[in-house]
User: Which sequence fits this backbone?
């Protein structure tokens, strides 16, 4: 899943504050996506709504895993 696809998927929900896509910075995979992102919403309630909507959703044949940070 590309960085643009992650941003597009997350921005459909209200309150998106930040989306940081994580990349390999060393080794043979340098410049390749690591397979996860950190996404921040304005309120915990908005983040919980996104988790409920996206956790387990199939994307490119794989289920999304959405965790809330403490």
Assistant:
């Amino acid at each position: 899943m590309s960085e643009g696809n992650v941003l597009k998927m997350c921005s459909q929900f209200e309150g998106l504050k930040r989306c940081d896509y994580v990349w390999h910075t060393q080794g043979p995979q340098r410049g390749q996506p690591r397979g996860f992102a950190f996404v921040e919403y304005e309120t915990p309630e908005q983040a919980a709504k996104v988790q409920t909507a996206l956790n387990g959703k199939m994307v490119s044949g794989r289920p999304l895993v959405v965790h809330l940070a403490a």
In short: The first helix runs from residue 3 to 11. The CA atoms of residues 51 and 66 lie 6 Å apart.
